[in-house]
Amino acid sequence: MAQRLPIFAFALIMAAIPFVPGIPPFWIVLLDNIGLAALVAMGLVILTGVGGLTSFGQAAFCGFGAYTTAILTTSYGLSPWLSLPASLLVSGIAAVLLGLMTVRLSGHYLPLGTIAWGISLFYLFSKLELLGRNDGISGIPPLAIGGLEMRDPRTIYFAIWLAVILSAMLTLNLLDSRTGRAIRALRRGHIAAESFGVQTAQAKLLVFIYAAVLAGLSGWLYAHFQRAVNPTPFGPQAGIEYLFVAVLGGAGYVWGAVLGAGIVTVLKELLQSYLPLLFKNETQFEIVVFGILLVALLQLAPNGMWPRLMALLPSRPRGPQASSAAALPARERDTTATATGGPLLTIDKARKQFGGVVAVNDVSFTVGAREIVALIGPNGAGKSTTFNLVTGVLPTTAGRVSILGQDTTDIPPQKIVRLGVARTFQHVKLIPDMTVLENVALGAHLRGHAGAIASMLRFDRADEAKLLAEAAKQIARVGLADQMHQLAGSLSLGQQRIVEIARALCADPILLLLDEPAAGLRHKEKQQLAELLRQLRNEGMSVLLVEHDMGFVMNLAERIVVLDFGTKIAEGPPDAIKTNPDVIRAYLGGAA
After folding, report:
1. CB atoms within 10 A of CB 281
2. pTM of the predicted model as reported, rounded to 2 decimal places
3. Parallel/antiparallel/unpaired status of strands 421-423 and 511-515
4. Fewer Cβ atoms within 10 Å of its own Cβ: the N or the C terminal residue of the chain?
5. What per-residue confidence (pLDDT) applies to 324?
6. What is the DSSP string of 432-488?
7. What gap in Å lies between CA 439 and CA 269, rounded to an integer?
8. What is the 3-state composition of the chain as percent helix, strand, coil, each rounded to the nearest 5?
C-alpha cells in the first residue's frame, strides 16, 4: 500500500489543478496534450525501454483508435463510450497483424520495419474515402456523462488524466509480476529467457499489442478532445516524436513517460511562442532549436530525466520484497527412466557443424542419476556447444539427445526445461537493472500460472508470493541472502555466477548444467560451491558441468568427459583422466 501512496498523491494533485483560481485555460489545454502523449509514450516504455523492441510507428495506432470512434460516432450514431472498446479492439487487431510480421525482425530491421508500415498507414489514412482523405472527419460528438458534455478542455481533462493514472497503475502491476519479468528478460536476448520456459515470441507480441492499445486509447481521447481527426497527427514525424518522449523521460520507467511528455510538450510550446518574436518571424527555427535542446538533455541524462530526478530523492528498496509465503512444491516429472536405472541424459553421436566447421564431432556420453559429470577440454573444444545441443538452443546436425528416455533432439528450450533440465551460461545472462530476487524468480517462470490480465488487475498476488518465496529460498541456499535486494549488475562476476545457479535451481531441475560455474570465484567460494553441488547430488540431482579449474573438477566430479576440437578423446574417473596421455597432449601440446 505504501508503494501506491505517491500515485494517489499525484492523482489528487492533478485532480485539484483545474480548480486552482485564476489558472489560464491554455495551461489546461497543455496538460491535456501532455496526458495524450504520455499514454503513447507509456506503451513505448513497455515496448522499447523494457522489452527492447524499437518502434517508430506508434502514431499509426493512435490513428486506428481515433478513426474508429470517429466513424462509429458520426456515421452510425454510436455513443462515444460504446466506441471505446471498438477503438481498442481495432488497435489491438492491427497490432496482431503487424506484430506477427514485425516482432520476428531483429537488429536494425525492426525499427526500419516500423517506419515502413508507419509511413504506409499514414498514406492509407490520407487516401481512403471512408476516412475523409486529407480532410479527415469532423463533427465528432464530445464525451458525456449524463447531462455533462465534455466540450471544453477543462472537463475532458479529467477523462484524459484518469486514463493516464489508471494506465500507469496497470502497467506497473504488469511489470511487477511473472509476466513482467519475462518481458524484461527480452531486452537481454532470448536465449536465457527461453531456457527457463518463456515463450519469447508470445511475450514480444504481447508488449506490441499492449503498446498499441495504449496508443489507441490516446487516439480515442484525442478524437473527442479535438472533435475532428485528420491524418497529420498520425504520421511518421509524430511516431518519431513519441519515441523521443519515451527516451527523454526514461525509456525503462513508467512515470518517465509522463515526465518526458511534459518536457517535450512544454518545450515545443515555448519555442513556438517565443522564437518567432526573437527572430521577428523571418525564419522558423523552432524545429532546429528543439532538436538541439533534446540532444543536450539526452547528453545531460543519457538514461532519461526520470532516473536522474529519482537520484535526488532518498533511496528506497528496489523491486518486490520476499514474502513469508510457503515456497513452491516440487514439480511433477516423469522419473520412469531413473526408477529403472536408466541414465538421465544420453548423448548419442551428437554432431554440430557451422558450415565447414565441425564444432561437435559425433560425441557420445551419458549422465546418470545422482551423478556429477564434468565436461572438460581446451578453449574451443566444443563444450558450450554441446550444452546448447542438450538444452535445445542449437539444433543438431546429426545424432540424438534424450532426457529421461525421451528423444529431445532439436526440441525448443521451453520443452527441455519442462523435463527438469536447467542451466547457467558461459557468459553471464542476468538482467542487470533487476534485483537478485527478481532475476532468480525468473527461473521459476514455468512454476507460476498467472497471466498478463491477472497481473494487471493484481489477481496474481498469491501466485507471485510463492514465486518470490521460492526465489528467496534458493538465494539463501547459495549463500547470497544479504545481496537479495541489490541490483544484479552491481555484484561481482563470481557472485553473478552464483545468482545464475540460484536461478537454475528455481526451475526445480533433476539435471543441472553449469557452464564454468567457478570462474571468478575465490578459493573459499569455490569450496562452498563444491559443497553445494555435493549436497544437490545427495538430494537426488545430477550435475553436468563445464569447468577449466582442474583442481575444482578433480575433487568434485565422479566422471570426466574430455573433448578436443569437438571430438571426445577420453572418459573416466578423475584418477584415470589425470594420467591419460591424450588428455595431457591436448592440454600441454605434447606427451608428459
Report:
1. 9
2. 0.91
3. parallel
4. N
5. 66
6. TTSBHHHHHHHTTGGG----HHHHHTTTTHHHHHHHHHHHHHHHHHTT-GGGTTSBG
7. 42
8. 60, 10, 30
Handedness of CA 477, 480, 481, 486 (dihedral sign): negative
Cell of 264: 517535450
The C-alpha atoms of residue 220 and residue 262 are separated, in whole angstroms, by 20
3-state SS, residue 177: coil
Contacts for 399 with CB less than 8 Å, ≥ 6 apart: 347, 348, 349, 350, 351, 362, 363, 364, 409
Instruction: Match 558461459 to its residue by C-alpha cell.
Output: 426
| Cα distance between residue 231 and residue 217, in whole Å | 17
- How far, in Å, CA of 576 to CA of 570, rounded? 9
For residues 135 and 164, give the distance between their C-alpha atoms in angstroms, rounded to a whole number. Answer: 29
How far, in Å, CA of 427 to CA of 446, rounded?
Answer: 23
User: What cell numbers appear for 128 in the block?
Assistant: 481512403
Mean pLDDT by 10 residues, the chain (592 residues): 76 92 92 97 93 92 97 95 97 95 85 92 92 93 91 94 96 94 88 91 94 97 96 92 90 92 90 75 68 79 85 71 70 59 87 90 92 91 91 92 90 92 91 93 92 93 92 92 92 92 94 90 90 92 91 91 92 91 79 44
Distances (CA, A) of 203 to 107, 175, 199: 17, 12, 6
Euclidean distance between CA atoms 84 and 70, whole angstroms: 11
CA angle, 285 as apex, 282 and 288 as ends, to 5°? Answer: 160
d(CA 402, CA 406): 5
Q: How many Å apart are CA 276 and CA 233, to the nearest integer?
A: 23
Judged by phi (left if over 0) then psi (alpha if -120 to 50, else beta), residue 464 lies in alpha
All three cell numbers of 476, joined, read 539463501
Residue 544 in contact with residue 530, Cβ under 8 Å? no
